[in-house]
Amino acid sequence: MTAAYDVAVVGGGLVGLTAAWHLARDGASVVLLEAGDLGAEASGANAGSLHLQIQYPEFVKYGEAWARAYAPTLRFLAASIDLWQEMSEAVGEDLNVRVKGGVVVARTDAQMRAIAAKARIEASVGIVTEVLGRDELRAVAPYLSDAAIGGGFCAGEGKADPLRATPALARAAVAAGVDIRTRTTVTGIARDAQGFALATPGGAVRAARVVDAAGARAADCAAMVGVPIDLGGFPLQVTVTEPVAPLIPHLVYSAAGKLSLKQAPNGGCVIGGGWAARVHGDGGLATDPANFAANMGIAADVVPVLGQARALRSWTAWVNGTPDWRPIIGEAPGVPGFFLAIFPWVGFSAAPMTGRVVADLVLGRAPTVPLDGISVLYD
């Protein structure tokens, strides 16, 4: 006999686990289907940044009109970072969440003007980014290079530990009653009057509703019910250094090149920023040496002491992205009962609220954060 559930969640990253956890705690019977291992993709392999600012490279690349359209999304990110700060207590484990602020470092007057323009747009949705001159910036972040002439400081940004977060959420979900099935690929989804039948190698699973939280593969899942999504998977790489003395409390970016930098509790510095990994013919990933060297060079230019630190390990992951950076959260048009839970590019930051909001929608409640102007499904 085919097992039947109120909700099937496809995807065992942070968004899927958080959605399943909330649904089960509110009384729904939930099965979570993960093709590989929990958190093995972007949720466990990202750099652990909690982003709140509009990303500087995209602001420069796409312009102010794009930034104004994207800006309402920052309210969602702010609410999600609030949830991150409650998460350790909620799951009973320290997830190393620290919100000490983020700084975009400028080296030219043109970069300072762009930071100021970006800050004005952020302020329009209630996100404060202070524009700091050289001396003000040095007072906040004395570890920066003398070449820094100023920057933007957003107090609401921070970091969390992706290696702790996914297992902790999984344990919380199981405790709430979620049936988690790893190495269970969904190969097809059929609709009928009773809901959905999800085909897997271990047999069909029935559910009245489905949540698509499949990350970089979410478009493939949505296509099974005839829903097209303009979503891609992007191969990125991250590096961690050997432990160094406590130095960097902030999330650090550079206006001169792609960089995200933070220091973990053990002293290691986690360095990323959206640098591409190599893709093998079989779809596997490997660190790209040229991009590794460029990423490390920018980090050392911004924080000179890192020029003396050895890189210990690099790793790769597929992340999902959309052309406009806007989230796709809500019930799929024309497919009642099928819900999309996609927050592109900065999904780690947004995961707690994405999971909560999609659980709200599945259960027929108003979303904790209104989605108008945020999700493309609510335009």
Number of domains: 2
Radius of gyration: 21 Å
Q: What is the CATH superfamily of the largest domain?
A: FAD/NAD(P)-binding domain
Structural class: alpha+beta
| Fraction of residues in H or I helices | 25-40%
**Would you identify the regions where 5 or more consecutive residues have pLDDT less than 50?**
none
Through-space gap between termini: 42 Å
Strand content: 25-35%
CATH class descriptor name of the largest domain: Alpha Beta
The count of strands amounts to 20
Mean pLDDT figure? 95
Characterize the largest beta sheet: strand count, sense, and whether it forms a barrel.
Answer: 8 strands, mixed
Structure description:
- The structure is a single chain.
- The longest helix is centred in the first third of the chain and has 19 residues, at 73-91.
- 51% of the residues are buried.
- 32% of the residues lie in helices and 26% in strands.
- The mean pLDDT is 95.
- The chain contains 11 helices and 20 strands.
- It starts with a strand and ends in a 17-residue tail after the last helix.
- By secondary structure, it is an alpha+beta fold.
- Strands 1, 2, 8, 9, 10, 11, 19 and 20 form an 8-stranded mixed β-sheet that branches. An 8-stranded mixed β-sheet has the order 5-6-4-13-14-15-12-18, with helices on both faces. The protein has a two-stranded antiparallel ribbon with strand order 3-7.
- It has 2 domains: 3-44 and 163-230 and 324-378, 3-Layer(bba) Sandwich (FAD/NAD(P)-binding domain); 98-157 and 232-321, 2-Layer Sandwich (D-Amino Acid Oxidase, Chain A, domain 2), CATH 3.30.9.
- Helix 1 (14-25) runs parallel beside helix 11, helix 3 (56-62) packs across helix 4 (64-70) and helix 5 (73-91) crosses helix 11 (347-362).
